Amino acid sequence: MKKKRKTAGVFFAPFALCFVLFWLVPFVYGCYLSVCNMSLTRGNQGFIGLGNYIQIFTAGSVYSEAFFRGLKNILIFVVTSVPLLVIIALVLALIVESLPEKVKGIYRTIYFMSYAVSVTAVSAVFLWLFNGNGGYINNVLLSAGLINEPVSWLEAQPFAWIVLVVATVWWTVGYNMMLFINALNSIDSALFEAVAVDGGGFFSRLRYIILPGIRNVMAYVILMTIIASFNMYGQATLITRGGPLNSTKSLIMEINDVIFTNNNLGEGSAMAIIMGIVVMLFAMCQNWLSKEKKEIKEVSGS
Amino acid sequence: MKWNRIAAVTLSAAMVVGLAACGSSGGDSGSEGGSGKIQISFLNGFTGGDGDFMKKITDGFNSSQDKYEIVESQEKDHLTQFKANGADLLIMGDTDLYTYAMDGMIQDVTDIYEKAGLSTDDFVETAMEVATVDGAVYGFPLDIHPLTMFYNKELVSDEEVPKTYEDLVNLNAKLQAQDPSLYVMTVPGSGISEQYWMALAAQYGVELEEDGYCNFAQDKLADVFMKWHDMVFVDHLSPANMGLDSEFTSFAKTADDITTQAAVSLTGVWFYSTAKEVYGDNLGIAPIPAIGDSSATYGQSHNFVISSEVTDEEKMDGIVEFLKYVYTPENLLNWADSGQTPVYKPTMDLIRENPEQYPVPAVNVDTVSDCAFSPQVYNGIAQTNYVTENIWGKVTTEENLTHEDLMGLLEQATDNAKQLAGVQ
User: Fold this and answer.
1) pLDDT value at position B109?
2) What mean pLDDT, rounded, does chain A reach?
3) Residue B300 burial (CB < 10 Å; 0-12/13-18/19+)?
4) What percent of chain B has pLDDT above 70?
């Protein structure tokens, strides 16, 4: 028994070491920084308690303005992008799964390929597509007579958000699709046959077999997509630069500016901690809602 | 079991060694590379077309040296690199120099001027002013890059090159009559926009600095923003809602039914290579027109600065040798090749002698002495960024913007500036 424990300990050690070095230490250090007056250039000016947090919640403070503007912006992005990233991924997964075996692999690769492209390349492509002055999308829409004058896709709202959401969906939807495909493959095919025997169509299969069958994966996909959306940075930095008028500046971009431009690592750390708490609350809500739903179904089913 | 244990311990040890290897570079200790030379780490942000020209200078120095070696690193966000990992020598803009000097990140180099055989009189006075903080010199000025005007000679004749606001209006009327997609210029929504409002603030004589912070809440500054606004929405010298870097991208395009083309571009000198590729001999270069009360322009400077961590004498001697090499008039001409305007007077004289070889510096060599710079205040970039990000965008997109609206926004910007400067 003792020997087994030692063996387990040796196997566990690399994980524990990585966990401590790359998660626990940075997290604890981040919490410590958030209660210090710390700048990257001047170093630590000392412990200030909750001073940084109070600044964030003090109306009129430059940090309060930055934090709540970033939070509002990222919530808009989360609310608009997450449903699309989940629904489109599921639809694509269902389409790919319904294809003949011969071409399934090709389409799976095509839809997933965009995920392998770097954010820099994705941004360059979307900047070209949505350029307000002679861009491809404007050219197509004008030529087709759908618009009378060029749209300022990147300089006006809600167009800037539309571009960011479209770019993000195009870039990352393949990953969620792959997860859904794996989940669909794990559903017992006998269940589909049973629905067919009962005369059920596609929507019956979706409602009674597919959605309950992929419930756990769905919860995971929603959770990870929410977290990824909260961390949106590259697309907004490269495509809209946070504009127009800071309306697409994400919370991560605001934190980055506070730390590196405003030279205030302590305040930036406090913002990051609060952002972490907000993301955690969202994750808990989502988890709670999916559990609630499961329990309701179980009760109504019984 | 034994092998498992060995593998686990090896893996853990490898990770610890890997982490230990991620230590900082630069700093005090004199380091010798594989070549046996004393290495000096040199960090700069020349990641665009100008990077090759700086590389030519450092390569030239390295090949001339048996004792010292400049290890150059060109990074997009080189100041963040400097904060995180340090460096011995770096290039710093005037917009950052004050803050880094106040924070003790860079050192007073007054004594090093003499060792490098230089005098502060060798440099353009305005460049020296922004390299000086509280009477101590913190930088060796490399260049000033003022807002510069490029024009398309196919659309703008020599007589039509705009020198005043009226010239812009007249040229625009001619171009619009020729083709509604042709404008005299484009006012960008973002990108170089800070230089736009700063240049006009200089022409209107606006003094932003006040007691260590930027006082934006000035009627004159609101007039500056309204002037740009009216250029777009009243005089229609530029289309509205133009985006990032559009002052140059629209200059480089050809007009058609759905594409706007600008005949003139008020832009940064770093676009020179691209502009030359597009227009060849039809590219004209001139100082920006006087839109306000005077012909002043706004510029930013690059400076060599030395980390305060450098105290090793051998390393400092190496930096001195490098500075001697850089500030040899002919060697610094390599930097003029990039389109930048060196502010070392002996090199400026060589540029004046060969204006055709250095077309952009030849135009700017006489304007740099009149350049206005960003205010020397703590966290200056953060203070001015707020205005650029939150107010400038309205200038090119909101037709109904008023002077009163702007004053409200500028008062808010001033409150924020006080907080960022640490005076409130």
Assistant:
1) 97
2) 91
3) buried
4) 92
pLDDT at B24: 39
pLDDT in the model for residue B19: 35
Whether this model's ipTM surpasses 0.85 comes out as no
pLDDT value at residue A296? 61
- Per-residue pLDDT of A74-92, as tens digits, reads 999 999 999 999 999 999 9
Task: Identify all chain A residues contacting B262, using CB atoms and an 8 Å cutoff.
Answer: none
Report the residue of chain B nearest A127, measured CA to CA: B244
Question: Count of residues for chain A?
Answer: 302
CA A271 to chain centre: 19
Q: In the 8-state DSSP scheme, what is residue A23?
A: I
Q: What is the pLDDT of residue A203?
A: 87
Measured between CB atoms, does B100 come within 8 Å of chain A?
Answer: yes
Per residue in B146-162, pLDDT (tens digit) is 999 999 999 999 999 99
Q: Does B106 touch chain A (CB under 8 A)?
A: no
Return residues 362-421 of B near A (CB < 8 Å): 379, 381-382, 385-386, 389-390, 393-394, 396-397, 415-416, 419-420
| pLDDT for residue A174 is more than 90 | yes
What pLDDT score does A293 carry?
A: 65
* Contact residues, B window 64-83, toward A, CB-based 8 Å cutoff: 77, 80, 83
Q: In this complex, which of A61, A156, A263 lies closest to B419 when CB atoms are compared?
A: A61
Contact between A42 and B241 using a beta-carbon 8 Å cutoff = no
Q: Are B93 and B299 in contact (CB under 8 A)?
A: no
Sequential DSSP letters for A92-156: HHHHHHHS-HHHHHHHHHHHHHGGGS-HHHHHHHHHHHT-TTT-HHHHHHHHTTS-SS---TTTS
Q: Min CA distance, B420 vs chain A (Å)?
A: 7
On whether any CB of chain A is under 8 Å from the CB of B4, the answer is: yes
Chain A residue at shortest CA distance from B5: A10
Q: How many Å apart are CA B63 and CA B66, to the nearest integer?
A: 8
* Residue count of chain B: 424
pLDDT value of residue A299: 58
Instruction: Find, among A299, A274, A264, the residue nearest to A42 by Cα.
Output: A264
Alpha-carbon distance A171 to A118, whole Å?
A: 9
Q: Taking residues A23-39, what's their average pLDDT?
A: 94
Question: Over the stretch A57-70, which tens digit does the pLDDT of each residue have?
Answer: 999 999 999 999 99
State the Cα–Cα distance between residues B383 and B380, nearest whole angstrom. Answer: 5
CA B328, CA B326: separation in Å to the nearest integer? 6
Spell out which residues of chain A touch residue B394, defining contact as CB-CB under 8 Å.
245
Domains present along chain B, CATH in parentheses: 31-144+300-370 (3.40.190.10), 148-297+378-421 (3.40.190.10)
- Best mutation target among B186, B250, B384, B420 (most A Cβ atoms within 10 Å) is B420
Q: Given a cut of 80, is residue B126 above it in pLDDT?
A: yes
- End-to-end Cα, chain A, rounded Å: 45
Q: Smallest Cβ distance to B11: which of A3, A14, A261?
A: A14
> Which domains does chain A carry?
27-301 (1.10.3720.10)
Q: Inspect the interface and report whether the beta carbons of A42 and B104 lie closer than 8 Å.
A: yes
Burial letters for A20-47: b for 16+ Cβ neighbours within 10 Å, e otherwise? Answer: eeeeeeeeeebeebbbbbbbbbbeeeee
pLDDT at B10: 41
Q: Is A263–B8 a contact, with Cβ atoms under 8 angstroms apart? A: no
* Residue A63 · residue A259 · CB < 8 Å: no
